[in-house]
Amino acid sequence: xxxxxxxxxxxxxxxxxxxxxxxxxxxxxxxxxxxxxxxxxxxxxxxxxxxxxxxxxxxxxxxxxxxxxxxxxxxxxxxxxxxxxxxxxxxxxxxxxxxxxxxxxxxxxxxxxxxxxxxxxxxxxxxxxxxxxxxxxxxxxxxxxxxxxxxxxxxxxxxxxxxxxxxxxxxxxxxxxxxxxxxxxxxxxxxxxxxxxxxxxxxxxxxxxxxxxxxxxxxxxxxxxxxxxxxxxxxxxxxxxxxxxxxxxxxxxxxxxxxxxxxxxxxxxxxxxxxxxxxxxxxxxxxxxxxxxxxxxxxxxxxxxxxxxxxxxxxxxxxxxxxxxxxxxxxxxxxxxxxxxxxxxxxxxxxxxxxxxxxxxxxxxxxxxxxxxxxxxxxxxxxxxxxxxxxxxxxxxxxxxxxxxxxxxxxxxxxxxxxxxxxxxxxxxxxxxxxxxxxxxxxxxxxxxxxxxxxxxxxxxxxxxxxxxxxxxxxxxxxxxxxxxxxxxxxxxxxxx
Amino acid sequence: xxxxxxxxxxxxxxxxxxxxxxxxxxxxxxxxxxxxxxxxxxxxxxxxxxxxxxxxxxxxxxxxxxxxxxxxxxxxxxxxxxxxxxxxxxxxxxxxxxxxxxxxxxxxxxxxxxxxxxxxxxxxxxxxxxxxxxxxxxxxxxxxxxxxxxxxxxxxxxxxxxxxxxxxxxxxxxxxxxxxxxxxxxxxxxxxxxxxxxxxxxxxxxxxxxxxxxxxxxxxxxxxxxxxxxxxxxxxxxxxxxxxxxxxxxxxxxxxxxxxxxxxxxxxxxxxxxxxxxxxxxxxxxxxxxxxxxxxxxxxxxxxxx
Lengths: 497, 306
What we know:
Number of helices of chain A: 18
GO molecular function (chain B): electron transfer activity; heme binding; iron ion binding; oxidoreductase activity
Structural class of chain B: mainly alpha
Strand content of chain A: 15-25%
Mean pLDDT of chain A: 88
Low-confidence stretches of chain A: 1-28
Radius of gyration of chain A: 34 Å
Shape of chain B: elongated
Strand order of the largest sheet of chain B: 1-2
Largest interface: A-B, 29 and 34 residues
CATH topology of the domain at 83-156 and 269-294 in chain B: Cytochrome Bc1 Complex, Chain D, domain 2
Subcellular location (chain B): Cell inner membrane
Radius of gyration of chain B: 36 Å
Pathway (chain B): Energy metabolism; oxidative phosphorylation
Low-confidence stretches of chain B: 295-306
Order of helices and strands of chain B: EEHHHHHHHHHHHH
Largest sheet of chain B: 2 strands, antiparallel
Number of strands of chain B: 2
Main location (chain B): membrane
Distance between the termini of chain A: 93 Å
CATH architecture of the domain at 83-156 and 269-294 in chain B: Orthogonal Bundle
Function (chain B): C-type cytochrome. Part of the cbb3-type cytochrome c oxidase complex.
Number of domains of chain A: 3
Strand content of chain B: under 5%
Oligomer: heterodimer
Shape of chain A: elongated
Distance between the termini of chain B: 102 Å
Number of helices of chain B: 12
Structural class of chain A: alpha+beta
Helix content of chain B: 40-55%
Number of strands of chain A: 14
């Protein structure tokens, strides 16, 4: 009797899966990941990256804790996306959901801003300010602190899993996890009052979505910053592809000046045959420091995020061997061609001013100014009126006809405002609400609308029973405080047929 | 079967035996994880049909070991909702209806609750917009048979109209003047003419003048000498522009000849106190609601019909 086989469909063939029969490595669908262990480096661009990291992380972690006094009726958090109440606060600006086009405008500005930056300084976003870059940088710094620099890291990666290695790994992962938790944790403070939410968070009374958000963002930060790193830039992110399409021959890219560097050779060889070798001593420092593990000497490539660390590394080596700096440097393709033909290197700043960058900059400023103008000129009072449809008209005992309306008064200021509602185009019409009797009806109805909210009124109008079946008029509202302002809305009065 | 001809050289996998234009299909085995997932779904399906109602039987279906049912789930949801609004209902039930407007939040809750209850219990006669129809009063207007303040509306809803089984019910009995031969046919015509006059639909003529006398003798006891009605008796105001059954001569003639005996259920028997109170608040909010009776009496009885 054959032994029990739980996998009859599979077991009938009793052969390995075809994939397993393939020669190792020859026809894998995916390229095997090479370990990247970037070496520490110091220099101008490394310091610039430190500065950008400090600034961006400070902005990220400090912003929710900034306060901004908006008076007693609005939250005092400087930047707050209040989803529950559908308000977006940014310092002096408050945006209601129907004003979401300001956010759309900001996104368009961000898009044009990226065009501008890309056409001027290439993939500077990728190299300096992208969260993936900033957090990976931070994680790598932690890694160097715990595991040592490049060579020690490579040794440790190859080492067997001894208790010492396990301890080191656990320590590193704990620090990473702590950073990831702080990263994920800070995000939620943009969506609620930060001090309150922090207290709720630690006492376990915050909303489940807060914990879920922190959990997801902690996990993604930990995985993306700790393990996936350059894979995100090379495989996952669409931006390198878009940027590659946007770069032109006048964009700054990190360039290995091969006409100066080739033919590569060690100092010894160069000393032996001075004429045959270029400035590159083939020390591989540019490869060792690269956070995405590429060799810039192979030319521009999608893996290059233009972080310029190879420039720092190469400059240092050039200084040590007494050759001029800039064998690897920021350089446009046009300038590279010119230099190849013998022109002197052009200062980097000179490359920034050109029609394309000026056009993007003008567009960017134009959108910004238009939004500022719109923000300054927007009305802070609105009225809307909806007529009762069932029944449309009610005949009253004295023969008059009554129509009812649901009128909404929107006060978008962070303070209560007195308003007056009137009717334009219905001579003799008087208004009353469901809180008043008809005897109290009056031509002008006063109402105080609470700060930053919508007041809903049910308004009645009664007119003589004889008249046109339909009369168009307008509901008007104006603020009766010093600041004034107002709005009006068309409506109609109907009589039964 | 497994001879060399049927094995693909590159992968070592058997062919299915089909061939299309030189393209042959490999009998590639399923990945193991896929197969396990497949078995797991089968096990899940079996467990599911045991745990939940599934198999159709002759009378109904298996009930499942968890005892779940869609009706039970609905009941649970309704009970949860009920528990949620219970404090509000309790507060409404404990607040006298006249005191509701003094608590705007409670009043608003009552109006909204009443709106929902009205959709269930009242729209059949009064219409979804409470605009009524012939014989069923329009609750939006300012004409009330029994009174339009909160307490009176609540009592009308609670006790209903013309429920013979309950002493407290709203009861107005207009005689069938023609059918019961209290008035002759000619006299009924005269009264109708007079009623058409006081409601300013016709000019005063000879018939109406005759009718005035008849009205004073037969009708004024309930409808008042001027025809302004009497809410204490549920007698409608005959001088205003609103007619429950119609103000044309034929309809008024029918009304006088046969009388009208519209009824409304006694909702106090069917609904709890809070629901009746919420219905009163809703009806009062429709636009014709009147202030509390203290104010109404202060204004004077002459205003009562307005």
